[in-house]
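User: My instructor asked us to take a sequence, write out its structure as tokens, and then describe one feature of it. I'm not sure where to start. Here is the sequence I was given:
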Amino acid sequence: MTLNIMLPGLGREKNVKDCVISILSAEWPLTGKKIYNRIRKQHELPVTYQAVHKTLKKLIEDEVLVKTGKDYKLNEEWLEQIRDFGTELGASYKEDKTFKKDVFPQNLIFNNLFDVYMFILEALDVIPTKENNSVTCFRDIHMWNPVIARKKEIEKLKKVMKKNDVFILSKGNTQLDEICKKYWESIGMKVTVGVDSISNHAIVVIGDYTFQIFYPENVLKEIQSIYKNIKSLNDMDFTKFHKDFYFKKSRINVLVNKNQEIADSIRNDTLKYFDKDYASTASQNHFTFSNQIEMGNFLVDLLERDQDAKEPITANWSFMWCPLFLPKKKYIKLKELLSKRKMHILCKTKTAWDEWLLNLWKDVGAEVM
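Assistant: Let's start with the prediction itself. The structure tokens for your sequence are:
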């Protein structure tokens, strides 16, 4: 039976290592030549025999494979690690760690990082929109790594994003932080890395709720070591990463409280690190922009994030805004988005300049009323 470990879409293409493990999980033992032939035929991966040989050698060094004579097979100890990982993952999913909105403060203790992250995801999901001013903030020493989540969690997070504007601050700015940043931005989050003022414990703000995550010293050291040493996704042994880090037994305290003033204070301080000046009245979707280029970029980003919506967009302006202020790529993106969704523009003034701009907006795809 073939073993497949599914990971979220981080832009990681199928590589030789993945193919070798997949092939040897279905048939073993095999010589290097047979493995090479199966990679070419079954996986249609254009690779040289030298590259396959180099990968086999590396997998032996990593104790993923063992070699007897000319034959290779998966290391049984490595398979045991995978079985243990699956057992711990299943146990974590069965435990009842639910967010309770009526008891404050709550001091919760979790046995591993995975359970902490799943608890926060649940809180994002269950806190209703009416209690949430739509601006959610994460502040931590490093970016949260999406490899911990299964497809189910990623889909749940994307759903949550429809009612939340998520802003992330990371103290670290390592190569791995940048990889994670790129992924979170791809699903609509706003991220700033390299913020020195972040403390060594994480803070999450959802509506009026604050979640403080206190890492033990050993967990802090492990986090710093991992983010310092991993330069690319190919450097990661995903099974070991899950077992020895996210599911490693520890004692992590999470303090949950509900206080609007504290939540707004942390939220407003977080938003200072982003380009736009978001007022504390963000629950009313009130935004302040310093120029029309900034406003235009925000409009395109907003439309792109909400591109699955069907209802028309209505813009009520005191004067016509010029879409030519947009960078070329943003302008093209705006035309693409408005080809799929109607936009109605209401404008108070009707000068010759407004009339000229009216034709520009019609060219983009909007309807001016």
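For the description part of your assignment, you could build on this observation: Residues 289-368 form one domain. Try explaining in your own words what that tells you about the chain.
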